[in-house]
Fold this sequence. Notes:
This protein is α+β, with helices and mostly antiparallel strands and 958 residues long. The chain is built from 31 helices and 31 strands. The strands form 8 sheets. Strands 22, 23, 24, 25, 26 and 27 form a 6-stranded mixed β-sheet that branches. Strands 2-1-20-21 form a 4-stranded parallel β-sheet, with helices on both faces. Strand 8 and strand 9 form a beta hairpin. The termini are far apart. The N terminus is likely disordered. It binds one RNA strand of 86 nucleotides through helix 1, helix 11, strand 9, strand 13 and helix 16.
Amino acid sequence: MSETNPAAAAEVAAPHRYTAALAADIEARWQDFWDADGTYAAPNPKGDLAGDPELAAKPKKFIMDMFPYPSGAGLHVGHPLGYIATDVFARFQRMTGHNVLHTLGFDAFGLPAEQYAVQTGTHPRVSTEANIENMKIQLRRLGLGHDKRRSFATIDPDYYKWTQWIFLQIFNSWYDDEARTARPVSELVAQFESGERALPGGRSWNELSAAERADVLGEYRLAYASDAPVNWCPGLGTVLANEEVTADGRSERGNFPVFKAKLRQWNMRITAYADRLLDDLDALDWPEAIKLQQRNWIGRSEGARVDFPIDGERITVFTTRPDTLFGATYMVLAPEHPLVEKFTPAAWPEGTHDVWTGGHATPAQAVTAYRAQAASKSDVERQAEAKDKTGVFIGAYATNPVNGERIPVFIADYVLMGYGTGAIMAVPAGDQRDFEFARAFELPIHCIVEPTDGRGTDTSTWEDAFSSYDAKIINSSGESVSLDGLGVAEAKTRITEWLERTGIGEGTVNFRLRDWLFSRQRYWGEPFPIVYDEEGIAHALPESMLPLELPEVEDYSPRTFDPDDADTQPETPLSRNEEWVDVTLDLGDGRGPRRYRRETNTMPNWAGSCWYELRYLDPHNGRQLVDPEIERYWMGPREGQPHGGVDLYVGGAEHAVLHLLYARFWSKVLYDLGHVSSVEPFHKLFNQGMIQAYVYRDSRGIAVAAAEVEERDGAYYYQGEKVSRLLGKMGKSLKNAVTPDEICAEYGADTLRLYEMAMGPLDVSRPWDTRAVVGQFRLLQRLWRNVVDEATGDVTVVDAEPDEDTLRALHKAIDGVRGDLEGMRFNTAIAKVTELNNHLTKASGAVPRSIAEPLVLLVAPLAPHIAEELWRKLGHEGSVVHQDFPVADPAYVVDETVTCVVQVKGKVKARLEVSPAISGEELEKVALTDEKVVAALDGAGIRKVIVRAPKLVNIVPV
RNA sequence: GCCGGGUUGGCGGAAUGGCAGACGCUGAUGUCUCAAACACAUCUGUCCGAAAGGACGUGCGGGUUCGAAUCCCGCACCCGGCACCA
């Protein structure tokens, strides 16, 4: 024995104590065992992953995490929170009779992986694959029960072959609004050929050129290229989806300015699915907050389209308040509205108001100047100036169809081209924005809703617009329709009927959702399986040419620009490889080998995550993206899940509208085209909270190493200097990252798992506290000691009958833990296990086997390594993973006696030990004769006695 | 501005109409040890009290109820989302 090595001395005294070293040994052994044994292999009903028929016959559970980006920074303890939670849940499901599919892949395309690669100067594939390997090692140490046969990365050609294939399915589809389903474009062509569907302009399909046909089909395809204003981000060198742009007009990633630029880009016609994406939310088991965010994003508004005649033509507006049509005193078009030029006359009409012209000599000049001004403004500036309404008269008048009034037409940037029809009827009395504009441009304000707040009908005295759904319509009578005296709802109905009867308009539903910009000027993404012929017509590559692999290029980094320079144009890295771009191919369409140019944009990083749940099911299938029978087994609709989908999907709330909306859209298209049986990808969604960490900053505001900060008397010091403390994110840049590796080294993975689950409810964010981790370590140490002799390593459990108290403690724990695990309340489940274990620790004598065994099973989902080891020590062959979870005996779940509190006027005055079966009358009698109660009543008369047997009696004195 | 979520000991949290503070951390004291660490044991919401015991207490103000952390109304603060969406 060495006097100078106390740790060694302790080990000699208790060589079989549950220490970090022993935990490491146990964990490594069982992780190897699981890999070799294939413990977590979930059998498919057929195919290469078919297996154990007994397991396959059980009800299925598909439990999934949002898969990680393999960033170069590695994991900190915040990352695996959700993975541990799904793993605990999956293990519990395995022990309660389910065939559980649980695995994890890697989302490895996209900006972060690419930027890391650019920073480190290595090829994205090399650095990404290294990161994946590193992350796999980190994750393996946590003991996650993944079916590793099913893992993949989105960058694997075998995977993105099918991402490309799905893109082509979408490209080759159109949305049939009447049938409310996607259909192959070939069926649309057949309709055009037969004349069943009319072509715009009344032409016949046969007389169209190939280019014209392509243009017509482009109007229908669910994936289409178009010249449209997109979010161009010079700082990132790419365009971005609306969802990737923040409210203040900057890129979500990198926080660079974003400008509107007109560029030819690929889009997904997600708007065709707006109503279904909205309606189908109802049957999903998702947090209401997330559903609400999606509903707001889709933004359904009921209203009407109304045609306003102008110069023998018409401008269509969308309004949610057709009942206020009589109050429309002017019209506003978005500056970029395509009809603006058409109606802009050569000269200002006689007597044009000076404030309307913006000081310009002609309407054309005014329009051009205003458009230039609007385009140069970044969204940030627009935001800041939102209060000051700007605009200019285009020199033309339209007619209000309901009363024949001549109303001026303006352009103004408060009307957005992307919403509705890009044109509005302005009702300044009822709409605050219109009101402000009318005041600024001295336009008339007609009161058409009777104010209910006493302000009167003289609008010249008003300070703001008046709007109420409870008010009555006034001043709204015309020759053919009158709304006077009606409430808002009735007026809407009547005017909509009138609009439809006269053909002037129609009731309609409008959505805020826009089409999804689907191309990026990046290297590290899926190439589009699209080539262009000499006429510039896009052609799909045949399936036999998939996957279209990413070519090598000399410089894969994106061409970025001065972030503030809007006058730049994106340049795609793939366009730098002329040999790859310029190809001669036979597409198998009967045209023979021809020269084509490849599409050089790549898909956005969302593409790979839009369908990965399906590939987990049948990851090695070379002929189909997933076998239909296998898909139906794991994903198909069933009772309570009318749209099918993954049984549990856990991830951060930051994906509320991006990934989750896109994945739902792809799922619906695949369903419509008959490739899958599930309409929705994720039946139940759970958002885990964030693990936060304290950030310590010195007087300059610079973050200092959190691990080296000392606390004295409620203040914090770093190297003697006082520092401030704030709760923030965990990360390298804030110098407060704690890695799972550190915690595993100090306590073991089981302790880390327990601590993360015990910190609090899974859906709430909470601060990491390394000091507190030891609490869960002690739990495992006591658990170990309750079964194993620390000196000899022998099992100490005895075959004696447990006492009543212990039996009750066990069955109450079983009952509670079962419910808590089912409800994903892992923190309280651990508290109940701890209580039982503490009970055993405190009880004198060895633990009976009939208690120790179920205890180990209770622990197994939470701390699987130690559970395996104890299970083996208790004399069982094989793994604990597929054992049955204990079932509580109801006879022991209730206590033999319960404590009944007796209150007087709601204050506890006495406690009685009574039988749980005691009757109300009996209990009342006992309570009223209790001496403490008698003393508390002090002779006062009794007005009322409330009895809730057996737990409570409340006596109300007079 | 609109919408959603939250506020409980020194800290993380438990209790969703019936004993507020389960479980854990921290802290105090003790056992073990030459000593320390580990481990174990007892205590640890605040105030009054030597103690027994008592009073107060779940962001603030009101209400419903025999009884409210929990339900209702109003307010403050914090976090998240959306935002000129007609």
